Fold:
Amino acid sequence: LFVRAATRGEQYAFAVENIVEVAKPGVVTPLHDTDPCLLGITNLRGEILPVFDFGAVLHGEPLEQPGRLLVVESDGLRAGLVVEDVEAITSLGTALEPTGSELVPWGVLLEDALVGVVDVEQLCLRLVPG
Amino acid sequence: MSPDGSFIAVFIDEANERLDRFVERLLTVEAGTASADAVEQLLRDIHTIKGSAAMVGLSDISAIAHALEDVLMDARRTGTVDGAHVEPLLRAADALRREVAGAGSGAAAALLQLAGGLANAEVAATPQPAERAAAPSAPAARPIRVAADKIDALLGLVGETVLHRGRLEHLVRAETGKRHSVDDELDTGDRLLAALKTTATAMRTMPLATIAGPYARAVRDAAASEGKEVELVVTGGAMELDRTILEALAEPLAHLLRNAVAHGIELPEERVARGKPSRGRIELRAQQRGAFAQILVEDDGGGVAPELVARGEVEGSLVDVLAQSGLSTAESVNQLAGRGVGLSAVRVAVAAVGGTLEIETAPGAGTLFTLSLPLTLALLDVLLVERGGGVYGIPLAAVEEVVAGGTPLALAGKPQLDVRGAPVALVDLAALVGYPAPPARPGAPAVVVVHGARRVAAVADALLGESEVVVKPFGPLLGVLPGYLGAAILGDGRIAPLLDPEALVGRSGARAPELRREPPPDVPLTPKVLVAEDSPSVRELQRTILEVAGYRVVTAYDGRDALEQILRDDEIALLITDFDMPELSGIELTAAVRATPGRASLPIVIVTSRDDDADRERGAEAGADVYMLKRGFEQQKLLETVARLVDR
Structure:
């Protein structure tokens, strides 16, 4: 099962086992002199959560309308991803096609839309500074 | 009576601590830097071990301590410890330590060792380091009697309570404004929270000094075997660190120190040829860096060979290179250190407790090993400031003062602020943290942040006040970010990044404040008894006996402390005091109480290991009501005595 999220008119799927929760983006405190993709940190029930602009991570451009916060985790590395919207939990079937992208290694046509399957482990590793 | 294991455990901790101090003091005698009262201090430690051991039923240990005491009594008569006696006294202390650890070869053997050593002292007056240097002793592990996860859960609750209290204060003030009753309740909450924090933290932590005691001996022995002159300086020894981490690092730190002696510090003649003092210096220090504690081992020796430094730059890090098995920084691998496997083991031990190891070196000037370790509960006193809509925390320890409405000056085209007659660079806080903000209003407050010898005046929009905050790390993904010590969650839910003074002023070595300790509040119950005793194990034993019997108990660690408590606390209904204590002896304390109007009739019981008629007479002359011996101590007898005296 996967959670579908949209950003910049594109759709992406995240395996549910990597999803911690979906929340509204709260107040994000910027940290200066850091990666431009890092919007800052937020208070997620008493813990500090780094918040990234998912669109900027993929495309290098800032998101225009942040809508939801997708909290993902892999191997103890936890990050908040700001996306425009989060849609239904869905099954992708088996018709996955390789894309050659490290962060989005698979694609699938779903209800006439192209959905990229995100490798959350690689994504989290990419987000580690340095 | 038959003391239970907890008293034995307290005794072992105490005896080890006193033996550490005993050895340190003997080394100052040997080095010719001992204080005038060194013999008295040596005697006091050994005497206390003797008395405490007798009280908890460890007669063998008491016997060894007694023999050591005899030797030191001779030294008291001459006013100094014969230099030739240092070595056998050190060996006797080793034997006593083994006996305390339960691994000794028996009291008889230890006594023979002491006697033999003293007899040979006349013909072997020089240190014999090689035998010990082969295996300098690391501090023995000290047991935790409460499961660590339970303490961690308690500490977690403390942290959450601090946050809760901040949120509550924010809400209450928003709803009701400043009302005295609300303020009083918040103050009460502060006091309770401080007591809870102190209690919980103390259960899980101990000061670096606890394990650092034996290091002076290890360095001394290692230096002697290498023909080097080395001074070990411990700073920040009072800093509280996680017990399990410290215990796990005791041997790795000993290795780093031996390594510094063997490979860092040069031979005296080499040092002199390089323009350095013949005596090398190794510093072991602890400091807080946000959510982390750092233990640093720094030497002023020759540094790591440039070719190894170059390899480190190519292969990733100098630690990687030096930790390779078989690689040594020394010209020859010796028994002290130098095997790369040693540093590899240090790195593994540090990583196992969630820490990191870094090395900095400067050829010809020295090497610095930095162990960064997670803190059990990272609390920090900060000044909260606002700039550009963001809130930031600056460690109070780094805040020298705040200047409001100062007139900027210019020096070489750069703005400066006159701070008590000295120009200090005036910089916008927004610029320091790299945040684009509109210019601050004229006359905005400037926070003078100091780090080492440098200062900077950082301009903020507003000062929000001082606060004790829980330092939250940025999490595993971000790890440690340059320029930040972590972040704090404020009462209103906002996050305040905590700024690193080092980054603000551009230099390293800032010290954060240590945990503030406050006594827990007393709860009124039954008659209050004051136990004045410098031995923690005896103090704990007596306190427990009395508390179980229903008495309120307060304790004092020396005579002066006891007298001050008696003068300020009218509820104290009885004093139980040791005979020999620092600052003010039990006899002096008793006499002082008897001479104090209003307190002269306070019942006083002396409990001591001094068993001769002259001492009994001194106790009676001073005004003690009862004189009891630690040897053959009986719980019931103490309780009967106390009951009789407080009820009369």
